[in-house]
Amino acid sequence: xxxxxxxxQTIPVTGATATSIEFSSxxxxxxxxxxxxxxxxNDSALYASTKITFNSNATGYSGRYMQGDGATSSGQSFAQxxxxxxxxxxxxxxFSNATIYIPSYAGSTNKTYTVDCVSxxxxxxxxxxxVISAGYWGNTAAITTVTLAMIFGGSYVQYSSASLYGVRSS
Amino acid sequence: MPTxxxxxxxxxxxxxxxxxxxxxxxxxxxxxxxxxxQAELLAEQKQIAEAKASAVSKLSALGLTEDEINALIx
Lengths: 170, 74
Prior knowledge:
Oligomer: heterodimer
CATH architecture of chain A: Sandwich
Helix content of chain B: 55-70%
Strand order of the largest sheet of chain A: 1-14-4-9-10-11-6-7
Distance between the termini of chain B: 50 Å
Order of helices and strands of chain B: EEHH
Strand content of chain A: over 45%
CATH class of chain A: Mainly Beta
CATH topology of chain A: Jelly Rolls
Distance between the termini of chain A: 8 Å
Shape of chain A: globular
Number of strands of chain B: 2
Radius of gyration of chain B: 25 Å
């Protein structure tokens, strides 16, 4: 059970777009990490899938996710996925809300993470999704860098943001 | 040139960094994967819709009413 949460850094997208958001030189003094994301993408779509990368290493991942829009639900295997962000055709000025939990990030075992995300649209035409995801990174290196980006090549738009928290168990 | 936002957690300094050639290549590969995935998804949805329409047509030819067909396929 978490005992303390400490904000390490926040990155707001202040320019027009950013292809990715990256936390580097992450201190190794916490038990777990939490990444909170409020994002929106510029892809020409209702929503865009987002991905996580550790230590700039693009290999060794696997993952599963379940999505539901209130009417239908589905699941799929998809490496690195950490939720959906509203994109260009979604209702304006709406951002996603995602929490990514990374336990034992500084240890020497393979890494796992869980995600709870909602991509809102505030429209009867759909586009609102609850996404629950579980991921694995088969690498024993301590996590020192966390990068968030669109899976299919879009960018985060202005006012997106990500915050990194350190969690201590005692 | 596309950029990424990087914050060094040891200093708190945030910088906007231009992507390397390798990162740009990955971005382009991701975009192509997106187009391929969307096309595959649309083709799959079209195939399912066509199979469903064919099934409804065959069931109708067997004499089932619309309500009976809906009860079977919903």
